[in-house]
Design goal:
Order of helices and strands of chain A: HHHHEEHHHHHHHHHH
Number of strands of chain A: 2
Number of domains of chain B: 2
Distance between the termini of chain B: 49 Å
Radius of gyration of chain A: 25 Å
Number of strands of chain B: 0
CATH architecture of chain A: Orthogonal Bundle
Largest sheet of chain A: 2 strands, antiparallel
Shape of chain B: globular
Number of domains of chain A: 1
CATH class of chain A: Mainly Alpha
CATH superfamily of chain A: MetI-like
Strand order of the largest sheet of chain A: 1-2
Strand content of chain B: under 5%
Structural class of chain A: mainly alpha
Number of helices of chain B: 13
Strand content of chain A: under 5%
Distance between the termini of chain A: 27 Å
Oligomer: heterodimer
CATH architecture of the largest domain in chain B: Orthogonal Bundle
Largest interface: A-B, 92 and 94 residues
Number of helices of chain A: 14
Largest sheet of chain B: none
CATH class of the largest domain in chain B: Mainly Alpha
Chain lengths: 324, 285
Amino acid sequence: MGPAQKSAAAALPRAFRGPGDRVFKYAIVGLSSAVVALALVMAVVIYIEARPTFKAFGYLSFLTETTWDPVKAVHGALPFIIGTFVTSFAALALAAIPAIAVAVFTSEYAPKWLAAVINYTVDLLAAIPSVVIGLWAIFNFAPLMRDAVYMPIYLWAEASAPWLAAMLGAPSTFNMTTGTIVLALMIVPYTVALSRDAIGQVPRDQREAMWALGATKWEVIRQAVIPYARTGIAAGVLLSLARALGETMALAMLVGNSNRLPFTLFGPAATMPSLIINEFREAVEPLHYSSIMAVGFYLFIITIGINLVTSFVQRKLYMGRGMV
Amino acid sequence: MKLRTRFLRDRLMLVGIGLLTALVVVPLFIIIFYVVANGFTALDANFFTQELGSPARAMQGKPTGLAASIAGTLLIDLAALAMALPFGIGTGVMMSEYREHPFAPVARLMVSTLNGMPAVLMGLTAYALVVKNTGGFSGMAGSVALAFVMVPIIARTTESVLTVTPWALREAGLSLGLPRWKVTLSLVLPAARTGIITGVLIAFARAAGEAAPLLLTSFGNNFLSFDLTKPMDSLPQRLYSLAISPYKQWHELGWGGAIILLLFVILTFFIGRVAVARLEKRMKG
């Protein structure tokens, strides 16, 4: 809209301009500054609520303390930080390749109608509330995995590879592996969506040049499409990571909720959001309450960090496009 | 590399990519199938008219249902929407129509930050702001938390819809001598209304499925209540409590509730998709 319109407005005598524009602008600025304030208020409020914990344990020692025992009033966030990072990165590792495969399949191989169906399905997967996915996993997926997968593996390991059995841990119905697999399923749509956009932006010429060299379809994808789209794919993966770190309900229902390190693959664990859900309503001791808020505060910091990196990568992506 | 191996690898990759795609797509149908198959029997007249009551009520076979949760969800979500709407759309207008304003980039950064925030943190904030200051869990606190969830989604979709609205529309309005506010309110927003409504629907559906913020703010209530100042039930939060409860009858109610939630989300999703497709067609043609 810019300068042309501005100078036209300035050319008018003041009396003809009327108060409408000014009032409207104030209203819009007021409404949006409330939204800006909300982000700041969140940080400040959670920090204030968490302060007793920081006073009692210190900022860093709270992060590195491994015990979380509300009865003895000792609180440390390390188990939950480990749980959050392990489940998120493992879910990312599980989800990334299939997600990129979906994006490649729909944009390179599938006929139009099939691509549309798959895209609808994947987007719908992102829209399903995580409690519903959690409900399904509690009653179908988790017991099935325990009986059909974890038990045989554990029994075999116990008999022939005791060192492995210690790492696996006795299989419980709700455990870290189940939580991670379901988490992977839930973050796939985010990687797919951004990878799809990135692959869609690859110019035709790029592909045709590769075809002209006599490449097979896979070679076109591998050497012309994916390298061009890789920044977009990276942004998609980062966005999924942010989703995974903050995913709450599915993990609270499936991860088993054990506050004690060490976590094992088939044993219960806990993450930062799952701790908040599980203990917040029972936190009557002030220190317990403020420690949960402190965990929330660190979750806030981590999410902001990932978001900033993602938007940096995305900006680089758009600037790159401008130059090509 | 021999030509033969190159062709073989090409075929192999197609099969691999196809299989991985199926691996992602199939679970969705499994989930929908299980929810519908398990929950269908729970959906009778009682389900919609009775309140949940104590576990004993279900154990003795007396009629129970999720009327309290369904009513609570509607109330909490509509109140949240009413709070979120002006802020969300106002911020969207700010980011799209006043992009020369020094405040616009700040708003954009904050909206994308809020968009990436886990909803459970919105719950913690609403707890500290509302529950602590009003002296107890309440449906109102839940609405505030959900409004926090909705605002950035509405703002972002409004911005992107307004950005694709043809620039000529604004120029035409301005050239007639209309002031900027009138151009925005009576030309740009009406032209973009399908897209804005879609964005609002998406935000509404997203918030309607959120359990985490409600567990920390509206708490839940086994009995029917229409008082926003008291603890109130909602479907997602009730689903969680039913699923982790030890009672078989409650599990069945949970599946029934999942159908309702799923139905609502899928419906919103398709309405949104159809609207977006139509909008894109109109913008192009």
